[in-house]
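Box 3.1 A note on notation
Throughout this textbook, protein chains are presented in two layers. The first layer is the amino acid sequence; the second is a token string describing backbone geometry. Keep the layers aligned when reading.
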Amino acid sequence: MDNGLTRAEASEALTHLAFYAGWPKVFSALPIVKDVFEKRPGQTR
């Protein structure tokens, strides 16, 4: 996100990774991603 990654792009990346790494691993990562998004309230792109 420091280099211009948007929230939408991050979400798309997680969906893409789910097919390679597996859905359970992505579901485990979601709370961490949510925490990062909440700590960056100014980025709404």
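The longest helix spans residues 23-39. The mean pLDDT is 87.
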